[in-house]
Amino acid sequence: MIVHVLTLFPGLFDGFLRESIVRIAQDKGALAVDLIDFRRYAKDRHGTVDDRPFGGGPGMLLKPEPIFEAVETLEAQRGPMHRVLLTPAGDLLTQATAERLAGLPELLLLCGRYEGFDERIRLGISWEEISIGEYVLSGGEVPAMVIIDAIARLQPGVLGDEESALRESFREGLLDFPQFTRPRVFRGMSVPGVLLSGNHAEIEAWRRQEAARRTQERSGAAPEEQQDR
Ligand code: SAM
Question: Looking at domain 169-228, does it have CATH number 1.10.1270.20?
Fold first, then answer.
């Protein structure tokens, strides 16, 4: 899968793309990330991409011309693709959204900056608008990294144990169950006996029960309700 990222700060992605699962996904050929600095599509020789809002108010807005030109140039080369505009006003990112995006062959992420976008960027290009949470960040780069991380680990063959993505929180509407490693006793806290029993059926039953209990505790809803979602 190829993810194209329109950003004014491609350098922010340096360490992120070089480490851990996102690096492995690229090394395995499951993911490619194409960083496009849309300042290069600015119309003047100063590389201006922002301007003051009509009607007054604080801060600067991203101008439409460089972003339209960046999208049109990319799609003239690669063909039309699914586009995501990162904004605190978007739909909250969920694991289901990450799974849907992870199945696409190509994806475009647009990172805002400053006070955000001239409204015509929203109106004149069709986007899925996504927020990573109900707070305001300085730019769309961290949200883009969140999406890239969430979809990289879902690419086939990227996680060592294929099962691990299938068993994580939010799959089947349940949070993950508690897990333990060595030592068996740490500061008076013991690993539950069932996990040391070697009885796989009992271990599986305990894990499902604990996942349901944790989901219920943290949502206030009954586990059956969670699983229906
Ligand atoms: N004035 C805008 C508002 O109140 O909605 C906020 C602009 S924010 C400082 C700059 C950019 O960061 C946004 O255009 C968006 O791309 C990105 N951004 C900030 N918070 C975000 C969030 N929670 N989810 C997704 N993108 C976010």
Answer: yes
Instruction: State the CATH class of domain 2-152.
Output: alpha beta
Between helix 141-152 and helix 95-102 the angle, nearest 10°, is 70
* Ligand 1 in reach of 88 Cβ (< 6 A): yes
Determine phi and psi for 163, rounding to 5 degrees.
Answer: -65, -25
Ligand 1 in reach of 189 Cβ (< 6 A): no
Task: Work out which ligand 1 atom sits closest to the CA atom of 131.
Answer: 24
**Before 183, cis peptide (omega within 30)?**
yes
Digit-coded pLDDT (tens) for 191-214: 999 999 999 999 999 999 999 999
| The model's pTM | 0.93
The number of beta carbons lying within 10 Å of the beta carbon of residue 75 is: 16
- Give the phi and the psi of residue 118 in degrees, each rounded to 5: -55, 130
